[in-house]
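Hello,

I think I submitted the zinc ion job twice by accident. Can you confirm which output corresponds to this input? Input:
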Amino acid sequence: MQPAFERLQKLPGFKACGKNQYEAQCPAHEDRKASLSISIGANENILLYCHAKCDLDRVLRCIGLQEKDLFAPKGNNHKPESAPPSYWRRVWGETIPLDNEASEPGRRYLENRGLKLTSYPKDIRFHSTLAYFVDQQTKPG
Ligand SMILES: [Zn+2]
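Support: Only one job matched these inputs. Its output is below.
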């Protein structure tokens, strides 16, 4: 964990509110709720955002940090491992064209995103393991 994050954990009201998501009282304004959003990115860089729109520099000054402290140390910037092309070829091979009857959830998904297609491009296909739920009750997690 980065030293900057240790500093952020000491802010009043600091608590986790999701995966790699935290909130705390913003030190740059009189904050009665936790207005400061803290996120850890995939590259372990830290993202700060005050919902009361405090200037980042001012927030950092109040915590005693500099902007560079938010970035993961160089050399530690590991890229997420990418699956080999053979994996993607296999996944692509498992997909079915959108005009296939079994692609109904895929078509419904696109329609609900406002994409009314009269024909289906060959580059957009449906994979049966992709779940799409229209109402909140059946949504997982
Ligand atoms: Zn603020």
